[in-house]
Amino acid sequence: MSIISKDIQKAVQLLTEDHLVAIPTETVYGLAGNIFSEKAIKSIFSTKQRPFFNPLIVHIPSVKSLNDLVTHVPEKAKLLAAAFWPGSMTLVLKKSKTIPDIITAGKDTVAVRVPNHPITLELLKKLPFPLAAPSANPFGSISPTKPAHVENYFRNSIKMVLDGGSCANGIESTIIGFENEDPVIYRLGALALEEIEAVVGKISIKNKKEEKPDAPGMLARHYAPKTSTFLVDDVAAEIEKNTGKKMGVLVFKSSLNNENITEIILSKNGSLQEAASRLYSAMHDLDSKNLDLIIAERFSEFGLGKSINDRLQRATFK
Predict the structure, then answer these.
(1) pLDDT for 163-208, tens place per residue?
(2) Is 27 exposed, middle or buried, given 0-12, 13-18 or 19+ CB atoms closer than 10 A?
(3) pLDDT tens readout for residues 87-111
(4) How many Cβ atoms are within 10 Å of 280's Cβ, its own excluded?
(5) How does 62-79 read in b/e, with b if 16+ C-beta sit within 10 Å?
(6) Which of 15, 22, 113, 239 has the fewest CB atoms in 10 Å of its CB?
(7) Measuring CA to CA, how many Å separate 183 from each of 86, 172, 180?
């Protein structure tokens, strides 16, 4: 049975012995293993039931560690790293020969980030190797933002969850690749499009790819509850259509004042940051209540609203 613990040294020991440890980041909890251990990396894929065609993100303690992992860093990548690392941004760069092909799904690029969580940064600094760490959930399921979420998924499969509390940002990192030296968004995430464009100018989005995806999070169905989920513009109308059913509802800031539903308001003060940070936790809560369906309110396509809609669209894709 996995142990929820704040013992960083114990995590170091387990990772050095090729075991997996769930680690906290500011985005979601990751299922971490030594990138140079074939045993550990294969265990990540098998534990998550993740297909080998889906590449992993490598976590490093600082931008200086990039030199050992990649062969080229475009100028705009340097600008982005200076602006947003440590933070919720992953860069996809040309990999060095030291990176095992299993990490990158055989591609010549590797996804790398410096997470912004004090416990995991301390852990990474104590380790002589980087960590591969996809989200600590079964493939396609709701990502975990609390230690208990990981425990519920993997209590008999991993030895330790390193306790870093609730994840502050609550959705995965924004993934940026480079095509002809120009940045391209492969996954919308906790770093808003507008923040990125303020640093490097207009940027294109290519965030859907079913075969041989360039980065995690590009598949049409992902981040999904077991309960049938619907993303709609008019929540009240959808409730009316499903009268008599046990319904859970996710709304941004305004209550529907309906006693016949289980309602979670993501941010009563209308903060997109708060809504993003609470999204997965709210989905976990509703998914545990044996409901007939979950209805989610569509957000405006601005700032983190765009990223929240991306997660909800993938959760509701049939």
Answers:
(1) 999 999 999 999 999 999 999 999 999 999 999 999 999 999 988 7
(2) buried
(3) 999 999 999 999 999 999 999 999 9
(4) 27
(5) ebebbeebbeebbebbee
(6) 239
(7) 19, 18, 8
